[in-house]
Write a structure and sequence with these properties.
This protein is an alpha/beta fold and 350 residues long. The protein is built from twelve helices and twelve strands. A seven-stranded parallel sheet has the order 3-2-1-4-5-6-10, with helices on both faces. The structure holds nicotinamide-adenine-dinucleotide and 2'deoxy-thymidine-5'-diphospho-alpha-D-glucose.
């Protein structure tokens, strides 16, 4: 069957890499990118494929159930890869309802549209839901999140993602929808919106602005290069077993403070600054409310069963990332003008 795949959130950070990979690698698939173009969505992320024959863009909001029905019909959607979400934990602390509306209600709207459109042959279609490791909660010293780790979300963001995961599983169980879910660790790489730790620090180091480290910088995250996540999504979409969950991660844990120091060191070199110059910008600030201490993903299942593993070492991925930001000043300027300044002052300068 010829596929017509609806990718939601394709103008965002991870979504744009997934859309590019599918458009370039699968010319026989039609790729429909649905995105509301919130502050986090940016069509400049997709210039490399915007003219491709097998690609089209639909500006739409997943909170709007009616438009979803229309788009399923208009494009004969056969499968969904669902990434659209409110994704920033700090924003979920100030405005939880926005996360309920997009991440929970939006996901249920999409499930309903798929169920309706695919009613006559539900078992021929796949609904792939892209989720996060944050649904498992916070780890202390040892151990990893595995697929059977009980859900224990701690922030409004992770609670909304956990709820959406539960709805996806409920639609599989109740209506027989073919679904698959993947839960990934922290991504980094090109096109990452500079509200998140790594791109925010790269941008601030470039501009000699303070580097806000929450608490003591002791929190630990497991970082994966975004294109490796996109490859994992490709693998799960094509080879994953219906009804299964796959954890995706890099076995690459870092304390926040060590990442910030690494960025300072590398950028001093790249910008021809005296060693130690950028480290002086590190500023310890008030901790995030309810800050999860540690995330660490065990991704053995996807490696053993589907043959995926990360392709890049962190050192190489970070170099590619910094170079991308230094070579894409226009992109950075566009996304940090206007509303970004208001968000930044409200969050960091009050
Ligand atoms: P992002 O914030 O960069 O992009 C989200 C995209 O969704 C944007 O293009 C935005 O315009 C769109 N969007 C938001 N609300 C919408 C709505 N109501 N209707 C339609 N489109 C809407 O997010 P990201 O970092 O690329 O994350 C993508 C997905 O991957 C999310 O589901 C997130 O939970 C998950 N995830 C992210 C990470 C990470 O490290 N960034 C890790 C694991 C999982
Ligand atoms: O684990 C996957 C998740 O990773 C995704 O589901 C989320 O969508 C994504 O945003 C990310 O969540 P985090 O909260 O881990 O990412 P963030 O970049 O916001 O923060 C990384 C760590 O850095 C975290 O411990 C908080 C800290 N931090 C963050 C910012 C923005 C700071 O110390 N200072 C900052 O200014």
């Amino acid at each position: 069957m010829k596929k017509s795949i609806l990718i939601t959130g394709g103008a965002g950070f991870i979504g744009c890499h997934v859309v590019q990979l599918f458009v370039q690698n699968y010319p026989h698939y039609k790729i429909v990118n649905l995105d509301a173009l919130t502050y986090a969505g940016n069509l400049e992320n997709l210039t490399s494929i915007e003219g491709a024959q097998n690609y089209c863009f639909e500006k739409a909001d997943i909170q709007d159930a009616e438009i979803l029905d229309e788009l399923f019909e208009k494009h004969g959607i056969t499968d969904v890869i669902h990434l659209a979400a409110e994704s920033h934990v700090d924003r979920s602390i100030t405005d939880p309802l926005a996360f309920v509306k997009t991440n929970v209600l939006g996901t249920v709207n999409l499930l309903n549209a798929a169920k309706k459109a695919w009613a006559s042959d539900l078992d021929q279609h796949l609904f792939y839901h892209v989720s996060t490791d944050e649904v498992y909660g916070s780890l202390h010293e040892g151990g990893f999140f595995v697929e059977s780790t009980p859900y224990d979300p701690q922030s409004p963001y992770s609670a909304s993602k956990a709820a959406s995961d539960h709805f996806v599983r409920a639609y599989a169980n109740t209506y027989g929808m073919r679904t698959v879910i993947s839960n990934c660790s922290n991504n980094y790489g090109p096109n990452h919106f500079p509200e998140k730790l790594i791109p925010l620090c790269i941008n601030n180091i470039k501009n000699m602005k303070p580097l806000p480290v929450y608490g003591k910088g002791e929190n630990i995250r497991d970082w994966l290069f975004v294109k490796d996540h996109a490859r994992a999504i490709d693998t799960v979409f094509h080879k994953g077993k219906t009804g299964e969950t796959y954890n995706i991660g890099g076995f690459n844990e870092w304390k926040n403070i060590d990442i910030v120091r690494l960025l300072c060191k590398k950028m001093d070199e790249k910008l021809g600054r005296e060693p130690g110059t950028s480290e002086k910008l590190i500023t310890f600030v008030k901790d995030r409310a309810g800050h999860d201490l540690r995330y660490a993903i065990d991704s053995s299942k996807i490696k053993n069963e589907l043959g995926w593993e990360p392709s890049l070492q962190f050192d190489e991925g970070i170099d590619i990332t910094i170079d991308w930001y230094l070579n894409n000043q226009d992109w950075l300027e566009h996304v940090t003008s206007g509303a970004y300044q208001d968000y930044y002052s409200e969050h960091y300068e009050k």
